[in-house]
Amino acid sequence: MTQTRWLDATEMAAWRAFLSTSHLLERRIEEQLKAAAGLTHPQYEILVRLADAPGRQMRMTELAKGVVVSKSALTYQITQLEKAGLVERATCPSDERGVLAVLTDDGMRCLERVAPGHLEVVRAYLVDRLTRDELETMTTAMRRTEQALRR
Amino acid sequence: MTQTRWLDATEMAAWRAFLSTSHLLERRIEEQLKAAAGLTHPQYEILVRLADAPGRQMRMTELAKGVVVSKSALTYQITQLEKAGLVERATCPSDERGVLAVLTDDGMRCLERVAPGHLEVVRAYLVDRLTRDELETMTTAMRRTEQALRR
DNA sequence: GCCCTGATGTTCAAATCTGAACAACCAGTA
DNA sequence: TACTGGTTGTTCAGATTTGAACATCAGGGC
């Protein structure tokens, strides 16, 4: 049993601020997307990732890792998006097991319509409130912990 | 219709890194707490807030705002924690409608037992990977957006 | 005292998420 | 070829979350 390493004031303040802010922002984003387009945040992230991907398509597992949700959650959400006509499933040519999620034209149009309002929220509460230095510091810091979490 | 203000490379990098990291860390924390104590992250946060509060008790609404969950989610979780004997409900003396969530001795012991392992995760992936400067920068930046989100 | 606006906490239905179990498939090896 | 270990995506049951609706109470103005 090793000694417990508590957090000092600086560390605790940083952790608490990070935690509260991420939760509050998540809620605000969810609210905006729901009102503007009837989308959840994971659904929106799926559309974004697919739009950025070559051929506007991605394997299910790869997509799940990118969006950071479980495989079953992605299966569920892709089914929802398929019903809405924003995404289609295609069989993977190189792997018989594989499934490709493909962004439809409607999906692309939906994303283009929704993105501005979404970015407005990201700006209003986060990006526009941080200095250039703060943005850069956050990027390097977050990437360092992201890398550790993905290994 | 105002012009859409897209995010430039620096802004996008910061936002993406923040988003992915917060989700990954959330998942890792959830996993650790579940394995170590059968607790969810919101449940753990409830215990922490109550332990810090005067008299180890808090009003439901105040607690919900602190933990950043809906009122109904808190009602559900307090019921769960009550079944586990970690929290009790008490009527509020000053307000007939009010309900006080009170941390029991068992709840306090549970928290003391679980906290070290939890903090180990927070350290391993976030706090110990950031410099003092980065921690302080993050605190001021996060607090600024938190304040905006809470108004 | 009485009314009105707002706050408080719960209940409810619906949606979503997770992990485990599963069937199908791939790749490498004997 | 047949086997073995690992990957892929889905299904399923259970747990959790949210927002709306609701009954109740507080505080102030008349």
Distance between the termini of chain A: 26 Å
Annotation field: number of helices of chain A = 6
Q: Hey, roughly how much beta strand do the residues of chain A contain?
A: 5-15%
Question: Percent of residues of chain A in helical segments?
Answer: 55-70%
The whole-number mean of residue pLDDT values of chain A reads 95
In this structure, how is the largest beta sheet of chain A organized?
3 strands, antiparallel
Radius of gyration of chain A: 18 Å
Q: What structural class is derived from the secondary structure elements of chain A? A: mainly alpha
Spans of at least 5 consecutive residues with low confidence of chain A: none
Let me know the number of strands of chain A. 3
Oligomerization category of the chains in this entry:
homodimer
Element-by-element helix/strand order of chain A: HHEHHEEHH
Q: What strand line-up does the widest sheet of chain A have?
A: 1-3-2
Please state the overall shape of chain A, judged from the principal axes of the Cα atoms: globular
- Please name the two chains that share the biggest interface, counting residues whose Cβ lies under 8 Å from a Cβ on the partner chain: A-B, 51 and 51 residues
